[in-house]
Amino acid sequence: MYSRLALILFPLTLVAGQQFATLTAETHPSLTWQTCTAPGSCTTNNGKVVLDSNWRWLHSVNGSTNCYTGNTWDATLCPDDATCAANCALDGADYTGTYGVTATGSSLKLDFVTGKNVGSRLYLLSDDEHYQMFNMLNQEFTFDVDVSNLPCGLNGALYMSGMVADGGVAQYPTNKAGAKYGVGYCDSQCPRDLKFINGQANVEGWAPSSNSVNTGIGNHGSCCAEMDIWEANSISTALTPHAADTPQQTMCTGDTCGGTYSTSRYAGTTDPDGCDFNSYRMGNTTFYGPKMTVDTTSKFTVVTQFLTDDGTPNGTLSEIKRFYVQNGVVIPNSQSNVAGVTGNSITTAFCDAQKIAFNNTNGFETHGGLTSMSKAFVDGMVLVMSLWDDYYANALWLDSDYPTDAGASTPGIARGTCPTNSGVPAQVESSAASAYVIYENIKVGAINSTFAAGS
Asked: Which GO terms describe its biological process (predicted)?
């Protein structure tokens, strides 16, 4: 995943914070999900979702003065990281009216543009103060998705992050908001656009973005392992584990963070590229898309299995398999058609061969590969559900030819049918303002327990 710039366009700019306020009540929308032991034998869990802190209004603790306006901090309230954390409070969210987030039963709909808000990122909660933690070793994760209204340049992403369960409250006493207000995000890009990390603001060294009036880059980033179960629009999709030296959330400094937000992409302790399986990129150009084998004009089910070397939850992750179910038919993932790369699942052998075939840096191996992902699952990972556009690369890495200075016939460059001039946020936010994604019927359980494998 290349970029997740939080974009918000309110006159009162909404950003991340560590303390909390109550000018707007924070009421978490309910979302049910299931745990399964065998097909048809599932238990319903009454979960909730919470909006990420980077989308929220941050204001003075004892009033309503913005701590952050446009893409700059208030110099009086936020002269430095520690003072800003003490002076500023994070407020509650109007989920549907302001952010276009609608939760009904087991279904979560995310609208792309709602008023002046663009996109959203949410986390599954176990209770109002803690994220739901997942260990997927020798388990499978299944959900239904509707991407029919996601054009080129948009990414409806469902993935897992090495965040901590309480959002960092126990670790950092200055963090008063925690999971209740969507605090503590991290991923393999070590994002530096976050307004608060580890209980302090990211004010010092803050540089406003040149191509966004609402975002900027601070001196600190937030790193962790990331399991991209689903990054997709109606044109392309990718399944991508990202390894990390330290799977759980850690703070980094400056360009040593690496990733999208730094001058040296591979300088950090995480794997920003990951080992991806994108059917189009792997040579099957008719598998996923409108009216193709997996028909993105209608809803379908996505099944991801995390197999271990000994077939138990105590083993080490050895293979990530993908199935789809649509119209009652189970569809195995497409096979690789790239010379020198075989299979239709993610294994160490697949990743090593792919990096060679595409002449890509093998950061996945460098940072621990599937063993690192195993450690991340043992620590517990948080489920993230989002919809966003890409101010860094226009999502061309997902659905077009990328990098754009290489020929489309070069192995690994072609990732989808979108033109290389597509995905520009200003254009997408205008032309596709009514876009949305729906995630529903989330199920987690034993291998082959969450879907009808014999269909």
From this structure: cellulose catabolic process
Strand partners, 253: 220
Q: Tokens 């030819």 — which residue?
A: 401
Query: Are 26 and 17 a contacting pair, CB within 8 Å?
Result: no
CA nearest to 196, candidates 214, 177, 212: 177
Domain parsing of the chain, residue ranges: 19-446
Q: How far is CA 112 from CA 151, 389, 432, in A?
A: 11, 9, 8
Tell me the pLDDT tens digit for each residue of 59-70: 999 999 999 998
Say yes or no to pLDDT of 193 above 70: yes
Residues in the chain: 455
Q: Per-residue confidence at 5, pLDDT binned at 50, 70, 90?
A: very low
Would you please indicate which residues are annotated as catalytic (active-site) residues? 226, 231
Q: What is the mean pLDDT of the chain?
A: 94
Residue position matching structure tokens 């061969």: 353
pTM: 0.95
Half-sphere exposure of 157 toward its Cβ, with a 13 Å CA cutoff? 31
Please identify, in words, the CATH class of the domain defined by 19-446: mainly beta
Question: What's the alpha-carbon Rg for the chain, to the nearest Å?
Answer: 21
Listing DSSP states for 366-419 in one string gives HTTHHHHHHHHHHH-EEEEEEEEE-TTTTTHHHHSBSSTTS-TTSTTTB--SS-
**The two three-digit tokens of residue 344, written as one number:** 């239709």
Question: Distance between CA atoms of 236 and 382, rounded to whole angstroms?
Answer: 24
Q: Let me know: does 403 contact 75? Beta carbons within 8 Å.
A: no
Q: Which residues contact 352 (CB under 8 A, 6 or more apart)?
A: 362, 365
Residue 387 tokens, joined: 């919809």
Alpha helices in 88-182 (DSSP H): 95-99
